[in-house]
Amino acid sequence: MSSVPSLNLTEVRNPVAEAACPLCVSIDTRQVESVRVADIDSEYRRQFGIGVLDEFPTGLQSLSWRHCNACRLDFFSPMVTGSSAFYASLARTPGYYTPSRWEFDETVRRLPAEPDLIDVGCGDGHFLRRVPGQKKRGLEFNPEAVRRARLQGLHVTQDALESLPDGSADFLTLFEVLEHVAQPAALVREAARVLRPGGRLFLSVPNNDAFVGSAIHDPMNAPPHHPLRWRPAAFAHLQEVAPLHLQSVTAEHLAPEQLYHFRRAGFIGALRSLTGGRMPLHRVGPGMTAVRRTANVWALALSRLAPTPPAAALGPSILAELRRTDA
Fold it and tell me: How many CB atoms lie within 10 A of CB 135?
């Protein structure tokens, strides 16, 4: 059952509002690509064996993938986010909750010996297990992930961040969360409220300035999974919506196991440049299927010929550290 109500879109859609950036509310946005809902569903069925049509409002045929010229956030319009049933289906997919991530290591080494920390969207609790001490807890939307985390003895609840008192923790982490929400500014304001003055917020998101932003037929980087696509430059605007100071933005470097996907996206990126950016990444059909298969062959061959990642190549994630200022 979808959490999205059935709507008559011809009556309720507001083109001006839908073009506004959900982070900075600027209407200085442009369309990157028109993405058909049927194509997203087709790729979910092919890659994961699940259908997602029920996640979208009745009658919605396509989404507008847009770029904000003001803050550089990319977003999909109209905004569609996944239901609990959708995430429960993904949780059964092997590898959805990965036990080890680059941002886990980066954050742990910046923490004190026993941090008072809340991990928002903690999944199975893989990061929480890495955090030293006992003053740690997690919030998670997916009930199955909560159950698995509790089986490991972790303090994880389905409480909303909004339910926590002001100044509840010194550290807050939001790993791979901000790309899933429809109201990122509101979430960041809540995170700042829950932090004590001087507390620190760690945010990680997929880096769409890296190869993940050029991946072909990637339904996970579109609604209902990712209504937002983040870039490093967009983090600067978080200081405008909450009492936070941006301390640093760190980009992951490409790891050897990511080389194939990097080469594949490089091939697609080159084709998009040749077409002036008009080649659609999400369009499903015989022509784009042939492009994807050619990119697969190219990436496999080049990765074998040149198995060492380029020194300056970026990996899939970025991590921002922000400090709560006195409000």
Answer: 15
- Is residue 191 within 8 A of residue 242, CB to CB? The reply is yes
Task: Find out whether the peptide bond into 307 is cis, omega within 30 degrees of 0.
Answer: no
| pLDDT-derived band at 18, boundaries 50, 70, 90 | confident
Q: What is the rounded CA–CA span in Å between residue 63 and residue 254? A: 31
Two structure tokens written together for 3: 């959490």
pLDDT tens for 31-88 read 999 999 999 999 999 999 999 999 999 999 999 999 999 999 999 999 999 998 898 8
Q: What are phi and psi of 4, to 5 degrees?
A: -95, 125
H helices of the chain, in order, are: 9-12, 15-19, 37-48, 84-91, 102-108, 126-130, 143-151, 184-194, 238-241, 259-274, 286-305
d(CA 127, CA 113): 15
Q: Which two structure tokens, joined as six digits, stand for 274?
A: 């040749």
